[in-house]
Design a protein that fits this description.
253 residues, alpha/beta, Cyclin A, domain 1, two-stranded antiparallel ribbon, 11 helices, globular, binds zinc ion, MetalloPept_cat_dom_sf, DgsA anti-repressor MtfA, MtfA_fam
């Protein structure tokens, strides 16, 4: 058997060649979808829009989008909006694309997981490199862009945190360790507050554990940056440094 690191370098070589020679190109229609349905993109400068489209093309080239249950065909809109969510969350890094998570499963609605024996809106499976989402819940999350509830951001946030600790590929430890420690320290105070029933800017699920806090904090960061900043400027500022972007720039107050 080939050692894992060599298999991996071969796989990444093939992937790089694919990006170079058979990169997916966005159609006019797909760019329209971005303009009309993805406010983050619509508010960027022309220069950043170009960068965003470039990153999205790489995402679409390197990930498989797979329909489950009644979703027989994955539509361009599904790929564009889910792909754009990955680009948005990772936009602070030049070429971070969550390599380990190369399969995106799309269910029509909440679905039953045989592993957890529970109904899910979405989940991340690091063992199989999967991000799974219910399309219905994804759209609900996008519909109100200011309520701090967004399934797409939530699941991509879980994948981001895991990718930072997955060591076989060259995408790991992209979080600045000091900033991450600072974030964790303040986060634990917030988790305690939520657990004791105190009202915070975060929804209650953030109190479950560190992973859920991170995912909900990113939903709040992208959808309610001004409220988040007012609520806890130190935590917000730490997240700006960790994520290398500040959503207050383009989300209107
Ligand atoms: Zn979660």
């Amino acid at each position: 058997m080939m050692p894992l690191y060599r298999m991996n370098s071969l796989a990444s070589l093939i992937e790089e060649l694919r990006i170079l020679f058979s990169k997916v190109r966005l159609t006019e229609f797909e760019i329209q979808v971005l303009e009309q349905k993805f406010p983050y993109y619509a508010r960027l400068s022309e220069k950043h829009k170009k960068e965003f489209r470039e990153k999205l093309q790489v995402i679409l080239t390197t990930k498989s989008f797979i329909g489950r249950s009644e979703i027989r065909v994955v539509t361009p809109e599904m790929k564009i909006l889910i792909g754009a969510t990955i680009v948005m969350v990772t936009f602070g890094w030049h070429d971070l694309r969550l390599r380990h998570f190369d399969k995106i499963l799309i269910y029509p609605d909440t679905y039953y997981s045989t592993i957890s024996k529970n109904y899910h809106r979405g989940e991340v499976n690091p063992r199989h490199g999967i991000i799974a989402m219910s399309w219905n819940c994804f759209l609900n999350g996008m519909e109100n862009e200011k309520d701090g509830v967004n399934l797409g951001i939530h699941e991509v946030a879980h994948a981001l945190k895991l990718e930072n600790q997955i060591y076989y590929n060259d995408e790991c430890e992209f979080f600045n360790p000091e900033v991450y420690d600072a974030f964790q320290e303040i986060a634990s105070v917030e988790i305690r507050k939520i657990k004791s029933g105190e009202l915070t800017v975060f929804r209650i699920n953030a109190g479950i554990d560190d992973d859920e806090f991170f995912a909900v904090a990113l939903e709040t960061f992208f959808e309610k940056p001004h409220e988040f900043f007012e609520y806890n400027p130190v935590l917000y500022g730490t997240l700006v440094r960790l994520m290398r972007q500040d959503p207050r720039v383009w989300v209107k107050n």
